[in-house]
Amino acid sequence: MLTGLGSALPPAWAQEVPQLDLPRIKLTAGMYQIEVQLALTAEQKQLGLMQRREMPLHEGMLFVFDQPATQCFWMKNTLIPLTAAFVADDGSIVNLVDMKPQTTQSHCSTKPVRYVLEMNQGWFAKKGIKSGVKLGGRPFERAP
Known about the structure:
The chain has 144 residues and is mainly beta. Helices cover 8% and strands 36% of the residues. It is built from two helices and nine strands. The chain has helices at 42-47, 123-127, and strands spanning 24-29, 32-39, 59-69, 72-73, 82-87, 93-99, 107-108, 113-120, 135-136. A hairpin with a 5-residue loop joins strand 5 (82-87) and strand 6 (93-99). The strands form two sheets. It has a seven-stranded mixed sheet with strand order 6-5-8-3-2-1-9. It starts with 23 loop residues before the first strand and ends in an 8-residue tail after the last strand. The protein has one domain (20-139): Protein of unknown function DUF192 (Jelly Rolls).
């Protein structure tokens, strides 16, 4: 975290270098494994996958919010086409939305959610993963 630079820092949306060093975990979607970077802080969520020129096929980014809410995403400064899966606390996919690169159109969850998983566009469709499918992994496990 950078401190002491105040207004000398550009806004996150103006960032020119992709963030690649976020914590990683594994999720499952049916028989498929996904390695995801976790966007946990406000800045990490704001930067998301901006400035990436490519992303490996079975990788994505999981945005984690404190409380369920209607989550909306756009693609300003995002160079690759993505699909956003809006995910409930139990790992169920609420809805999927394809998003075009470098656009400011809002894409929102149809219900309040705490998680949004972004993958390369078409990944979910090619695997036959639709709304209602449950993702597995640590974020969706309930404490005993």
